[in-house]
Design a protein that fits this description.
Elements: H1 2-10, H2 28-43, H3 52-57, H4 61-64, H5 69-80, H6 97-101, H7 111-120, H8 161-185, E1 209-211, E2 214-216, H9 228-232, H10 236-241, H11 246-261, H12 275-285, H13 287-294, H14 297-300, H15 309-334, H16 339-346
Antiparallel strand pairs: 1-2
């Protein structure tokens, strides 16, 4: 099996299944989970047993089960016998809110989950914002430097609670290893996973906000704006063919941007006007492209996710209106006045 899997991977097939043949190390908590679940059913007089594969597939059954006959039977029993609810308070049944809130490690309690965790988080994969490319445009840097073998992991299961469990516990573990680590290292503020009414630490870095109708952190807007000029500054195929390093690519792009902005004279004294940072991409593109983009009202303010629409629109609309009122007039005038006057107008 291992030789076949190795041959498969080396020949660029999709699936490497060599882990399937590797034996699992059954843990004490696997057995304890089954014993406690079976004991609960016996205590409430259920006429059926706990399917062994339930326990083999998912820890914390009561937290992740939903539309299962077993869960409905248990819920009905304790709805009729609330004084006996202590019977279901077992350490293998539920995730502990206090554990999550303190960013503590949640015990896997399951041999299969233990294997998935070990495989998923090898090589500090929690720091990867995306799957590393199989054919990178340049030599990977930072956390992507030595993870060329990292890929997506497929998990197959017959039970609908398994995807919920994997998504919940793996995403929590990734946050615990990153955000949680930073939060717990801050001696000035107690770490909390759940919202307590206070500002969370670390705070979101890419966060637009509005104060008294005025947008804040507008420098972040350049990360959202689809600049035509910037997209044309970099041709990955050309750079690969020329064998350019990342430093050489950055130098070329920097030169193109500097040449384009050279006509806009700025002073080297006084306080820097931070508006320059998010206005520069508009200057690079010119009046025609920018006004067309800004006039695409319906597309810019529409959302696919109905749940996020009210809050996102509340923040984004003032930002959009601010940009439109501030820029459309100026970029139109920018096309007919001198370079020196343009600079003065944009930087006022």
């Amino acid at each position: 099996m291992q030789n076949r899997a190795y041959f498969s991977v080396r020949n660029a097939d999709i699936i490497d299944d060599q882990d399937v043949a590797a034996p699992l190390s059954v843990m004490e908590q696997d057995i304890k989970s089954y014993v406690q679940a079976q004991k609960l059913l016996e205590d409430i007089g259920a006429s059926f047993n706990v399917p062994v594969d339930y326990v083999k597939s998912t820890p914390y059954l009561m937290s992740f089960m939903r539309d299962y006959q077993l869960k409905r039977h248990i819920e009905k029993y304790f709805a009729d016998h609330p004084d006996e609810v202590g019977k279901v308070n077992k350490d293998t049944f539920w995730l502990k809110r206090r554990t999550l809130d303190r960013y503590d490690k949640v015990p896997n309690n399951n041999a299969r989950l233990d294997r998935v965790m070990a495989h998923t988080f090898k090589d500090n994969a929690e720091f990867l914002l995306w799957v590393p490319p199989a054919r990178p445009y340049y030599q990977p840097q930072g956390v992507f430097k030595n993870v060329s073998d990292f890929s997506k992991t497929l998990v197959f299961s017959s039970w609908e609670m398994v995807p919920r469990m994997i998504a919940g516990l793996l995403s929590y573990e990734a946050e615990r290893k990153t955000v949680g680590k930073l939060a717990k290292a801050n001696e000035d503020k107690e770490a909390h996973y759940f919202y307590t009414g206070e500002k969370r630490y670390p705070s979101a870095r890419l966060n637009f906000s509005v104060s008294n109708g005025t947008p804040n952190a507008m420098t972040l807007f350049c990360l959202m704006y689809p600049s035509q000029f910037l997209s044309r500054c970099y041709d990955p195929i050309d750079c690969i063919n020329r064998g350019l390093t990342l430093r050489e690519i950055e130098k070329e792009i920097k030169g193109k941007i500097a040449d384009k902005l050279a006509k806009y004279e700025t002073t080297t004294s006084g306080v820097q006007d931070k508006r320059w940072y998010y206005i520069a991409p508009f200057l690079l593109d010119g009046a025609g492209y920018v006004t067309t983009w800004l006039n695409s009202d319906s597309e810019l303010t529409s959302y696919d996710d109905e749940d996020e629409r009210p809050n996102d629109r509340k923040v984004f609309l003032p930002i959009y209106k601010h940009l439109k009122s501030f820029i459309v007039k100026r970029i139109t005038e920018e096309s007919v006045i001198s370079a020196k006057s343009r600079t003065t107008f944009w930087m006022c």
